[in-house]
Amino acid sequence: MVTLEKVRRDAPWAWIKGAIDDMAAAPFLSIGYGVVFTVIGLAITVGLWSLGQGAVVPVMMGGFALVAPASAIGIYRISQMRDQGKTPGLWDFWSIPKGRFTQLALLSVLMLVFFLTWARLAQMMFALFTHEADFRLDSFLPFLFTDVQGVMLMVIGTLVGAALALVAFMVSALSFPMMVDQDVDAVTAVVASIKAVKDQPDVMLVWAWIIAFATGAGLALFGVGIAITFPLIAHASWRAYKDFNPRPSPSAKEVEARLAEKNQA
14-17: which pairs have CB atoms within 8 A and are 24 or more residues apart? Predict the structure, then answer.
């Protein structure tokens, strides 16, 4: 079991404000992380475009949102260092206790599975609806908006992607920051994240919409805005985790040990 604090309904806006403060305190580090992922995104976009596969770019952009929480560990560390009264550094990522890397890696694999599932589903939908459609973006966009099959692909693809993104959000909303900050296993962190969404859906669904809007805005100009929105959302996710303050219930062994110490005292 995990215990969570109850947060205010307008908490997401406080998380954004805290994120802006974090970015202002370490702008080169925070935006630097965003620039790295922007460059990677641009490289993938250019590569697909040059291969005449521009229609695949939106799929890859949508998939980025699924793996982004696992890619933001270094940004969480910036916020963590600030909370501890320390100056954030470039190599803080590697100062995470080694035991936590295994659990972070396990959950990162799960997020990768979400991404691969989305890619596979997108491939199946393309095969079902596009037939011989040209995958160059300049000719694929008219197909989406003027052809019945294209409209169906867009609607169904959006619904499927939204459902998968919601599940990924429930799993990762608090889990990655929690594992960076506490010695907990991946299952406990995921339970805390799902519990936050389940206990306060009004707050967390607003937060999910803010993330979706910020990600969409960041991806708008071929992903250039991600340099800002990616670290902003990552810092805000840390603030969300600190606000909920998840605390795992002690195990039976820990309870017995405490009782034994109390009896001896």
Answer: 14/239, 14/243, 15/207, 15/236, 15/237, 15/239, 15/240, 15/243, 16/210, 16/232, 16/236
CB-based contact 204:243 (threshold 8 Å) = no
| The pLDDT of residue 82 is above 90 | yes
pTM for this model (two decimals): 0.86
Range of the domain at 33: 2-264
Q: How many domains does the chain have?
A: 1
pLDDT over threshold 50, residue 22: yes
Residues pairing with 247 in the sheet: 3
| Model pLDDT for residues 49-80, shown as the tens digit of each residue | 777 776 677 777 778 878 888 889 999 999 99
The span from the CA of 44 to the CA of 115, in Å, is: 15
